[in-house]
Amino acid sequence: MNKELFSQDKYTEHTLSMSFLKANIVGTLFPIPLVSIFVIMFAWVEYSLNRKWFSISGNAQFLLWLLVFYASAFLLIALHELVHALFFLRGCENRWKSIRFGIKSATPYCHCKEVLPLNLYRHSLLAPLWLICLPLAIVALLTGHGLIFLLTVIMIFGSGGDLAIFWSLRKYKGNRTYVWDMEDAVGCIVYNCNEPDSLK
Ligand SMILES: [Zn+2]
Question: Among residues of the chain, what percentage have pLDDT more than 90?
Fold first, then answer.
């Protein structure tokens, strides 16, 4: 929905934003419980099965390992932003025309120009965790592969910003609240409907 539709008399605006420094610090702290659970589970499985999870023999194999690692990380980061976009699209009237991809302060992002229902925005924030990190974690646990283990940890940390925004939205009710993701700052504008019965 177009941002202009959200007038001051119908909606109360709240701006939730933080500095890039705070976003980087908070974004690193939020994933720690999830990463800890995964690392403990991985270590426990490896120890129980007595698997050799990391073995490199020779420089050539190390270089290949490094190349595969960087290529996979790049693809997974792109996929993370694409997952956000696919969820945003469900609330976009102008479809792909409203979606922007870019890099801000060395961090890739996906921005939606339209105002979205809060619940949809919440789903979009958590979607990469369910659709990318969870399958990666399962594959890492099943195979005991060191590369997949590392990629899982990186991808969970990569969801830190999303988790921080999700947390900052916890007090809002989903059914009458809308969100506009800020393009030039870290955070979003929340529109709370003043007329409870006018919109579902
Ligand atoms: Zn994200």
Answer: 37
CA 17/CA 20 separation, integer angstroms: 9
Q: How many angstroms is it from 155 CA to the middle of ligand 1?
A: 10
Q: Does residue 55 belong to any structural domain of this protein?
A: no
Local confidence band at 121 (pLDDT 50, 70, 90 cut-offs): very high
Ligand 1 center from residue 77 Cα (angstroms): 9
Query: Which domain covers residue 132, as residue numbers?
Result: 3-50+61-193
Alpha carbon of 161 to ligand 1 centroid (Å)? 7
pLDDT at 8 over 80: no
Can you tell me the distance from the alpha carbon of 164 to that of 144, in angstroms, rounded to the nearest whole number? 30
List CB-based neighbours of ion ligand 1 within 5 Å.
162
Has residue 154 got a pLDDT over 50?
Answer: yes
Question: How many folded domains does the chain comprise?
Answer: 1
Is 56 part of any domain? no
Q: Are 83 and 159 in contact (CB under 8 A)?
A: no
pTM of the model: 0.84
